[in-house]
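G., the chain you wanted modeled:
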Amino acid sequence: MAQQSVYILYGDFISAETSPSTPLYHLSKSLASLTHKDSSLYFSRIIVNDTKTSTPDSENQQPQQTPLYSLVHPKNAHYRTDIPAPYFMTNNSPVPALGNIKFVPSFTPSLTKKFILPFHKPTFTAFLSPSSTSSSSPLFPESDASLEVLFTAKPSRGGRVWEWLDASGKEVVAREEAGDKKQQLPPRLVVEGEASLEMRDALVALWVLRLWWSVAEEKDFQNEVIMNLTPPESISYNGDINKMNKRIVALGALGAC
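Predicted structure as tokens:
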């Protein structure tokens, strides 16, 4: 039977399901606390002292965090043409890492010709720019031809489960399961088989980006953006009914022209 590794997300920490009290990764901010004003997160690996080589003073030492990636979702990303992708992550690690990665959502051709509704879920493709870093200029090459496909994430069961496929699109390398707030079940990522540490770091970070998409697309989150973009006078007249009536009359006059 193929080896499995299961990761769970608790707030701003990610742990192995077999050892939930020992975090493996850390986010600079929990996804639940994100607002439309947030455009980046820092994703770090937590290094715990090896008990076999620990010293008598190691009990007083705190686990160390090694920066790996900056996860980015720019403001108004879906309307901008000056960014690499709506979601991407840059390599800012002092240790070996794969490089900068675009995470590009796409819908089926039939949906692009229609209105895309909230229950429609995209397929995500992760494109790697090998050996690039947050200091690279540009962050990604102008042509996507030099990028490598890492993974493809496809939704199933209405988005409750996502399957992560390898570069060929044939082999399932991971399965993502949604959490349940009512039952206090955290999101889970079940990784199949073995992979290098660098590849696993990237997969877990991309999982967080995928979850961020879910947060950003939630109805309440979208309403918050709309409320912040709508001028106050369009929402409330502070009880001044005369001002409202004047506005209605003015709009009616325009319609009669």
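The chain has a mean pLDDT of 81.

Shout if anything looks off.
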